[in-house]
Amino acid sequence: MTKPLALAIKWVLIVATMAGILWVATKLAQAGNTMAVVIAGLVGMGILAVYATRRAVPLKYLVPGLLFMTLFQLWPVLYTASLSTTNYGDGHLYSKEESVSDIIAQSVREVADTPRYKMSVATKEGGDPTTADLVLLLTKPDGSPFVGDKTGLQPLPATGVEKTPVGKITKAPGYTILNARQANARSKDLSAIAVPTTDGGGIKPVGLSEAFEGRATVTYDANADKLTDSSTQPPTVYAPKDARWVNVADPTVSFPQGWKESVGLANYTRIFTDPTIRSGFLGIFVWNVVFAIVSVLSTFLLGMLIALLFNDPRLRGKAVYRSLLILPYALPGFVTALVWKGMFNQDYGIINQTLGLGVDWLGTSAGAKAAILITNLWLGFPYMFIVCTGALQSIPQDVREAATIDGANAFRTLRSIIMPLLLVAVGPLLLASFAFNFNNFGLIYLLTKGGPFNGADTSIGSSDLLITYAFRLAFSGSAPNYGFAAAVSVIIFLLVALMSIPGFRRTKALEEVN
Amino acid sequence: MHKRALGAAAVTGVAALALSACGGSSPTTPSNTGAAGTSKATTSGTPETPSGTAAPVRDANVDLVIWTDADRSKAVQKYADQFAAENGVSVKVQISTDTRAQFKDATKVGKGPDVIVGAHDWLGELVQNSTVAPVNLSSDVAAKFLPSAIAATKFNGQSYGVPYAVENIGLMYNKDLVPNPPKTMEELVATGEKLVKEGKAKQVLSQFVSKVGNAYFAYPYLSAFSDGGIFATKDNGDYDPNKLIVNSPGSVKGGEVLAELGKEKVLSTNVDDTNQDALFDTKAAPFMISGPWSVAKAKEAGINYGIAPLPSLAGGGAMKPFLGVQMFYVSSKAKNAALAQEFVTNYIPRKDVQLALFEVGKRPPALKEAYDEVAASDPDVKAWYEAGVDGKPMPNIPAMNSVWGPFGQATADIIAGKAGAQARLDAAAKEIAANIAKG
Q: A 391-450 residues with CB below 8 A of B?
């Protein structure tokens, strides 16, 4: 490649990257996220500094990797960790101020024995429909027209007023009626309108053609930081407690709308002190490790044996067998898992029917675990088979011949020559497979949902992995609690990281064999 | 040197193979199969369909955005278009594959729709998360609906939407095997066992139980007894989360019926959503307890089915199912609040709209006038309605989320004979109460 061409390509790529970052930054700016815009700008400047100049050669190689690592590894971990110190979850999504305004807005009730008005939205004649003060042209059920604004309700002179058959005013002298689109554009102003009435209520619009007289029954006292609900007799007082508005007289009653707040390390304390979690956590953890190890070993052994078998030069039609064996891997895993679930059914499943068994596979703890391991063996061995086939083919024939000449039998060759060479190649993949299976959410969720649940506790299933357990805590159960689930995820992350360290040490040792 | 090069060659070879084989870090299964299996086939049509299971992207240039599931989208689209023409505005109907979750997430970041179509038992959660706005239907319009449907749209005495359909479970029976539906559970079991003995059927009844249980299908056994059920109600008709009755004497009697039927193999934890319909549709079971969603499959299988109210239990009364009400909600963060309110309060209560929505869902309409018209011509709808006439709406309080799992599992354990009714329901009550207290 000539130098000018290379230079041109380089600059095109740089400009394209800059354009991409600019696009992302504008999107972020639209979303109003100033901090992110600044970061995007800094990243752009960094890229320009590294690639547009002749300096910083090592960085030229490292920057893409670093960027992606920050984006897809570091950021999620940090975000999860920060979430784990809050109570973020259902009922705790917004701020305290928002919970107050929401509770008050939702407490508006129609005042008893008041009429429903037909309504049109209008402005004083000549007013700008996008900014002028809005007035409501109202018709009582008896047909008498009124005009309402923030000062109150006044009768509207009937002369010159035109109405639809149901009574909605379409023309009134001195007023300009807004059409649906214009009125809708003022939705915010409309929802704020309450034409004051003599009994303390306000006439509020419902949509664009009706209005009712309503009154908010809850009031907020900012000084005392208390909500008072006057719809009960005597009025009920609510005070903030544990990020909710709780009835002062009866603490079992609270408003459903709470708010998000920092809870420090409370989520972590809960993991280590809650008796159900503590007793369950250990059991789940042990099964999780057993599941991951057995899955890796069983799939690896089966895959390797088949690969060794098919590596024999005398076998014919290898291409056909190999394609067939890859099938379980090629089919979508969730379909396979569901099919296996059907096959494990105690009464209707093909496994019990053909073998004449009555095993309650999915209803007992041991059965469910066995079912999971069998299914995972089916799903996982083709991958190991492919990997081992590749590695075996790269082991040259002369090494084996040398072993044969030295008098080694087939088993000895396998143990001392082939296995070490194979493990050098496959070792890191076994480790990756372990990490994947450690968090194999899909299989468990589709096959058993973590069940069966023994005893009287449905939060901890006997085939649960830590990840399915965290999922149940976060998304099902009583109220999705993202903060707590984030804390569990952080713990899982630390556990997997700790367990990987000896694994990586071991792979290093394998490499040094050579 | 030679050996090292060899090892490196092996590593690169395997790595290349691994990359081409899985293209990622998921050695055994595709990693993207989690997330609750909420994907649903979407039909193509006028409404905008999303790609995969992602939430639809809100179109900023239209005056009203409605999210609904794929089934209802065409009927909603038709009346949305009419509404748009009458008011000179533009309306967009978008298909959401999982409205409940996607609405919550999109609303949180200010990209939610103005109106959603959904079930009434989402209400407590939606209010808790401040995502829906009150909908003030006038009392004379509200009176045109079935009272139970209107009751279902209320939470804490406030009304939050307009209903359009009511659904509940009933007893489906195979008319070729059973000419007249049984009135009592004894009669049902006797008829079924006779058919099994004669070799005309393989089992008595097909009912969704599953290994983890199903609270929705188990509830009618409890409600057949005078104080049986899940939550007691307050004076104003709302369910009271502090008055749990899953282990009341009536509920325990219902639990004992479950245990008895489990012992007789009438109910089995091996029947679940994957085989429930198949058992009825292949004539293996002459009876099935299910809802309107099972009708289409039975029809397709050529079953001469009938629909009847659930049977009554000895010592109690008729089994009363939960009612599920489908309704239109208005988002509390709606950008077009005025139009959204107008559409929901003025359009959805119309008879022609309710009839059109009936055509796509075949659930009894919530508007009395529309129901009367449909019931006169469609015996199925009349039968479903009558099967649910004594039913109460499913609780819409957020505390109900704490009930489904523990209560369902308790009924599964009772049916499987793992525990006695009294002890297991006591334990479930304790667990539910603890979960509610945790919030």
A: 391, 393-396, 421, 424-426, 429, 432-433, 436-437, 440-443, 445-446, 448-449
Distance CA A513, CA B3 (A): 10
CA distance B263 to chain A (A): 15
- What structural domains and CATH numbers belong to chain A? 3-83 (1.20.58), 95-106+227-259 (no CATH), 108-216 (2.40.430.10), 271-512 (1.10.3720.10)
Largest Cα span, chain A: 118
pLDDT at B251: 95
Restricting to B residues 191-250, those with a Cβ less than 8 Å away from any Cβ of A are: 211-212, 242
Residue B92: its H or E element? strand B91-95
Please, are residues A483 and A267 in contact by the beta-carbon 8 Å criterion? yes
CATH number of this structure's domain B64-167+324-393, picked from the four choices 3.40.109.10, 3.40.190.10, 3.90.1150.180, 3.90.1150.10: 3.40.190.10
- Looking up tokens 């950021």 gives A75
Give B243-285 pLDDT, tens digit per residue.
999 999 999 999 999 999 999 999 999 998 889 999 999 999 9
Tally of CA atoms within 13 A in the half-sphere of B374 that contains its CB: 28
Pairing of strands A152-155, A236-241: unpaired
User: By CA distance, what is B83's nearest residue in A?
Assistant: A180
pLDDT at A215: 86
Rounded to whole angstroms, how far apart are CA atoms A160 and A163? 10
Report the distance separating Cα A382 and Cα A330, nearest Å. 9
Of A470, A468, A491, the residue nearest A480 (C-alpha)? A470
Interface of A with B in 116-135 (CB under 8 A): 116, 121
Report yes or no: A400 and A493 within 8 Å, Cβ to Cβ: no
What is residue A259's DSSP assignment?
-
Contact predicate B192/B205, CB 8 Å: yes
Quick one: which of B322, B346, B270, B262 has its CA closest to B79? B346
CA angle B14, B19, B21 (to 5 degrees): 90
Rg (CA), chain B: 25
**Residue A346 touches partner B, C-beta closer than 8 Å:** yes
pLDDT at B349 over 90: yes
pLDDT band of residue B9 (cuts 50, 70, 90) is: very low
Q: Is residue B21 within 8 angstroms of chain A, CB to CB?
A: yes
H-type alpha helices, B51-184: 70-87, 99-108, 123-128, 139-142, 147-152
Q: What torsion, rounded to 10 degrees, do the Cα atoms B260, B262, B263, B269 define?
A: -160
| CATH superfamily for domain B170-322+397-438 | Periplasmic binding protein-like II (3.40.190.10)
Residue pair A117/A203 in contact by the 8 Å Cβ criterion: yes
> Please, which pLDDT band fits residue B35 given cuts at 50, 70 and 90?
very low
- Residue-wise DSSP of B344-377: HHHTTTSHHHHHHHHHHH-SPBSBHHHHHHHHHH
Alpha-carbon span A80 to A485, nearest angstrom: 9
CA distance B366 to B357: 10
CA distance B113 to B131: 11
- Report the SS3 class of residue A377: helix
Ranges under pLDDT 50 in chain A: 514
| CA-based max dimension of chain B | 92
List the single residue in A with minimal CA-CA distance to B407.
A458
pLDDT tens per residue across span B124-134? 889 988 899 99
B150 burial level (CB within 10 Å; 0-12, 13-18, 19+): buried
Write phi, then psi, for B323 (nearest 5 degrees): -100, 135
